[in-house]
Amino acid sequence: MYDAPQEIIDQVIGFLQDDRKHLLVARRVCHSWNISSRVHLFNHLDLRVPDQIPERRTSCKPHSKHLSDNCSNPTITGLERFKRLLELLDTSHDVAFSARHIVLGNTGLISPEARDIYDVLIPALLSKVRRITSLQLSRMRWADVSSPMLECIANILESPHLHHLDIWNCELPNAEAFTRILSMPRSLQSLRVSQIHFKQPFNHSISSNTLTNLNVTDKPSSLRILDIETTNLTPLLEAFIASSQSQHCIKIDNVERLSIKHIRDESSVRAFLKAVGGAVEHLELKASASWDSTHNPNPHRPIELEHLPSLRSLHLLGVQWVGRLSSANRIASIFSNIPQISQNQYNQGPTTIPIPIPPSRCQSNPHFCQHPHHHHHHHLDHYPHPLEHLHISITALPMRQSIGHYDQWLALDNALSHPAFSSLQSVTIHVYLQAVWEKGFDRTKFIAQFPKLSEQGKITVDFIIPSYSYS
Q1: Which domain of life is it from (predicted)?
Q2: Checking CA distances to 436, which of 7, 168, 356, 409 falls within 20 to 30 Å?
């Protein structure tokens, strides 16, 4: 009963000394419980190299059985931890089989001597893990990653078991390096890209005027979930396009859940949505300039719903309402004067996915570019847009203890009450108010701007006062 819970051992010793039958049953229970606990305990393995933190900033706690880094010398402690984990994987095959989620990172934050040791330990550890379904690459400078580690990462990416990839706060030399990463996975279903930095500047700009159609088909790895945060969309989309030449690439025309956060370039967001929006059912945009009238006088609609023919749920988060500068008109323009969805689009979605490609790419790779006449849409009987749920999060910051232009939100009520949005079931608006400015916001007047949605019972308005103050 090695490593069995102490309370069960006490029960066995205290009450079952002479009862062999129940002693055998208790032993089997302990063994089963131990295996079940290991499945949860070792489901997530954090194999990030510990930071070299000065000794005065850490404290030493004598927990010898723990696999976490608690002592003042994180490098030495990390090595011991990795060695103990390797011994455990060698002796306990159930632990090796239980590990599913792996985190790798911090490889550029250690000395060359320590890196040589980790370059042996980490591949040895990963060679023991049978089935990795989720991989996170964290705080990695690609130029500093050694060949053994790159080979190890490539093996994981090419595994048929890998379903989720998370790349956070990594520095890549250029878009081509990201293209190579995208070309490796065979069964990826979920991808999160956050705070990716490209060392080589990318000078191309995505523009709706330079869009060229690209039909990506017959590729094995088909994304369903895509999250992008604080990352330049231009090289990212370029990498998606380039990876389509690979035998094993990531299809982006089947993405069902798309989240784009903290990206201020409206043209890139709009072009990216035009490229991947054909199958998107759930879209979340957070802290974008697309609807921020205080920074963006762009007359174009920030989101073109005709390129999102399958959209059922839309979340607009981080909307700013500062004094008399409201984003109401920008948000209302999303739902105003949109072409109705054709029956073919409504039932099947678009047959091709238009992807913006720089002209230079078309000249050097003719296979990327197809003639527009191959992709006519047949306009049959028109149907309403399938949007069912709309969620808007607004941060209201009154200036001089007041806020204005409540009447601008009436345009949103009129737009959403149009027959084109007869499928709409609910509109939820969260208004975040700073406690000190709460009295400067007229709640009754704001709710009164949505008479049609209120009459239909479709709108819910919540006023939230966070416990923290805005910086």
Answers
A1: Eukaryota
A2: 409
Question: Strand ranges (DSSP E) for 2-89?
Answer: 44-46
pLDDT at position 253? 78
Reading the block at residue 72, the tokens are 């003042």
Answer for the pair 395, 321: CB distance below 8 angstroms, yes or no: yes
Alpha-carbon span 361 to 91, nearest angstrom? 53
Strands (DSSP E) contained in 39-92 are 44-46
Beta bridge partners of 355: 212
Measured from the Cβ of residue 314, the count of other Cβ atoms closer than 10 Å reads: 21
Determine the pLDDT at residue 134. 96
Tell me phi and psi for residue 124, to 5 degrees: -65, -40
pLDDT digits (tens, 9 = 90+) for 161-171: 999 999 999 99
- The more confidently predicted of residues 374 and 122 is 122
Token look-up 């595994």 returns 159
Q: Is residue 266 part of a domain?
A: no
Residue 391 reports pLDDT greater than 80: yes
Residue type, 81: R
Average pLDDT of the chain, as a whole number: 74
Q: Is residue 462 part of a domain?
A: yes
- Would you say residue 440 lies in a domain? yes
> Tokens 């130029």 correspond to what residue?
143
Integer Cα distance of 171 and 196 in angstroms: 6
Task: Give me the pLDDT at residue 52, please.
Answer: 53
C-alpha to C-alpha distance for 205 and 360, rounded to whole angstroms: 12
Query: Residue-wise over 251-271: b if at least 16 C-beta within 10 A, else e?
Result: bbbbbbbbbbbebebbbbbbb
| Nearest CA among 248, 249, 290, 297 for reference residue 271 | 290
Count of domains observed in the chain? 2
The boundaries of the domain holding residue 446 are 316-336+384-470
Backbone angles phi, psi at 362, to 5 degrees: -65, -35
Checking if the pLDDT of 338 tops 70, the result is no
Considering only 65-69, 121-125, 154-158, which range has the smallest mean pLDDT? 65-69
> Across residues 435-457, what is the average pLDDT?
89
pTM: 0.75
Phi and psi dihedrals of 144, rounded to 5? -95, -5
How far apart, in whole angstroms, are the C-alpha atoms of residue 284 and residue 274?
15
Rounded-to-integer distance, Cα 205 and Cα 175, Å: 14
H/E element holding 414? helix 410-416
The answer to whether 397 and 322 are in contact (CB under 8 A) is yes
Helix (H) / strand (E) containing 82: helix 74-91
* Percent of all residues in the chain with a pLDDT value above 90, rounded to a whole number: 26
